[in-house]
Every structure is written in structure tokens, then in C-alpha cells.
Design goal:
Helix 8 links the parallel strand 10 and strand 11. It is built from 14 helices and 15 strands. It folds into two domains: 143 residues, Periplasmic binding protein-like II (D-Maltodextrin-Binding Protein, domain 2), CATH 3.40.190; 88 residues, D-Maltodextrin-Binding Protein, domain 2. A five-stranded mixed sheet has the order 11-10-12-9-13, with helices on both faces. The protein has a four-stranded parallel sheet with strand order 1-5-2-6. It is 37% helix and 17% strand.
């Protein structure tokens, strides 16, 4: 079955409908990747992934970044890029694990998955905890607001200036961190479990806006809700695949094949399908995005 770090209610709300196939137990029994008696990984992660033929990836089921298809297969801009790169490395399959954003880095470092492939945007605090690949996606941020944008929200500064405003955010998400870094009090933040809940919070008047990447909000747009233009007082955001810091050989091999993929039309086709620009991803570096405050 599709693995999950979310509650059943949250998973159903996120739209996950079926399961991706896991390797048969017999197939795993033939290979040992942990130290007897300790359960700790043995050998390099890169060697293990090549031997077992698949990688476990953490996703959030937030289109267009990540998505679970009706048949249970994993797709979206980030998993599709990761799958293409891994195939070039001799790792033919991915296994998705749906998990909240705030659990992705702890879960990676606890060996619950091998790679984060969820549009987990780079910033200083995250880059100090994990190793990212070079950028795969560059994005903009917007607010989902009631039609007509009655509070005229277009900047984070406007949110900070009015203590009465309430903004829905995904805990642990880039937007949650961006507001806190800007000094917006926690009392103004409305924590929600998934994208649809953010839209519902705005519709019900529990939040004045929902802060999320522009393309994610466009995928959630519904009657009575409008999406603002890109918020211009947020630093440029982007993501790459996330790895454990100890997996330096895996990161190096991944970056080599990602660079090769970026030089082909396939990279633009993968991102274009989901509304992203290949040229934008080529135009920034990991070091630039890892310098984002937060």
C-alpha cells in the first residue's frame, strides 16, 4: 500500500486514492541493508538503491509539486524529475510516502525514506540539516483570498501591519517560515493540515488568506476564491531533491545526472507539463537558494 505519515482523514482529504506497489517481501529478504542486531544501515545508500531497484521518496500530495494519481502512482513536477534522474542512475522505480512538511527532514534523517521529493523549498535552516541537489523547480508565492480581495492583501508587510489579519499556512511549510522570519506573530497564523483545508478556512472566514505557492493555489482555486499575483516581498524560492548529509556520493551522482537531464528537452517537457519553467530552474544555483533566510 501507499505508505503514509499522515492520518487517514488527512490522506483522504488530500485525495490519495489507491496504492503504489511495494517490493515483494521475498525480494527484500534476499538482500540485507542493515547491521545485524542494530538495524542501522550498512553500506552506501547509493549502492543499496541500485541493488533494490527503487528509492523511497517523501511527498506531500500537493499538486503540481507532488500528486497521487487515482491508480495510486506517484507523479507531480518534483517526483517526475527525480524519477527521470534516478533512471539515469540505474534506479528504475520510486515509492512514495505521503507525509507533512514538518516531518520530512526528521523522517529523512531517521532513515524512513531515502529522498525528499516534495517541493521542499531551500532556505538556510533546511540546508543546514540536509543536502540538496541543484535546483529542479523555481516558484512564486501568492495568497488565496475571497473574490475581490477585500483586505487588499498583496504583501507580507501588509499582513504584519494588521494584527487582526489571519493567514492560513501549512505547518513547517516555506510560507509558515517566511511569515515567521518576517516577524508575523504566531497568533496571526492558522495552521491547516492540507491545501483544501486552507481554501475552506478562507471560505469560512477563519482566515483572511491562504499563503502557498502560486501554482498550488491555482490547482485549488474554486468559486468565490481568487489568487493574487506573485508576492513581491518574499525571497525567490526553489527546491531540489533532499538527501541525508552522510549520502555525499548519492548527491554527487544525482547532481551529475540532473545536470545531464537539464541539458535535454525532456527536462523542459517534465516541468512544462506542470506549469514550471526549465529555464528558471537553470537560472539559479543551490548556493543562491540556500542563502534564503529562514
Amino acid at each position: 500500500m501507499l505508505r503514509t505519515e499522515m492520518s487517514r482523514r488527512q490522506l483522504l482529504r488530500a485525495g490519495a486514492a489507491a496504492a503504489v506497489a511495494l517490493p515483494a517481501a521475498g525480494a527484500l529478504a534476499g538482500c540485507s541493508f542493515t547491521q545485524p542486531g542494530t538495524g542501522q544501515p550498512t553500506g552506501s545508500t547509493l549502492d543499496r538503491l541500485k541493488q533494490q531497484g527503487y528509492a523511497r521518496i517523501a511527498i506531500a500530495n500537493e499538486p503540481p509539486y507532488t500528486q497521487i494519481n487515482p491508480d495510486g502512482s506517484v507523479t507531480g513536477a518534483e517526483p517526475d524529475v527525480v524519477a527521470a534522474v534516478l533512471k539515469r542512475m540505474g534506479i528504475p522505480r520510486i515509492e512514495g510516502v505521503v507525509t507533512p512538511y514538518e516531518s520530512m527532514i526528521p523522517g529523512l534523517n531517521a532513515n524512513r525514506w531515502d529522498i525528499i521529493a516534495a517541493g521542499l523549498f531551500m532556505k538556510q535552516s533546511r540546508c543546514s540539516q540536509i543536502s540538496y541537489s541543484e535546483p529542479q523547480i523555481v516558484s512564486t508565492e501568492s495568497f488565496a483570498v475571497p473574490a475581490g480581495n477585500p483586505k487588499k492583501l498583496t504583501t507580507i508587510a501588509a499582513v504584519k501591519a494588521d494584527p487582526a489579519l489571519k493567514i492560513a499556512v501549512l505547518p513547517g511549510g516555506f510560507e509558515d517560515g517566511a511569515l515567521k522570519t518576517a516577524g508575523v506573530p504566531a497568533a496571526q497564523l492558522v495552521n491547516i493540515p492540507d491545501g483544501r483545508s486552507g481554501i475552506e478556512a478562507v471560505q469560512a472566514g477563519r482566515a483572511d488568506a491562504f499563503f502557498l505557492p502560486t501554482l498550488s493555489l491555482e490547482a485549488l482555486k474554486t468559486e468565490g476564491i481568487e489568487i493574487t499575483g506573485a508576492i513581491n516581498d518574499v525571497q525567490q524560492t526553489g527546491s531540489g531533491a533532499g538527501f541525508r548529509q552522510a549520502d555525499g556520493d548519492l548527491v554527487a551522482a544525482y547532481d551529475e545526472q540532473l545536470k545531464a537531464l537539464k541539458g535535454t528537452p525532456e527536462f523542459d517537457q517534465i516541468l512544462g507539463k506542470w506549469g514550471f519553467s526549465g529555464e528558471a530552474a537553470r537560472g539559479v544555483t543551490r548556493d543562491q537558494l540556500c542563502s534564503v533566510a529562514g
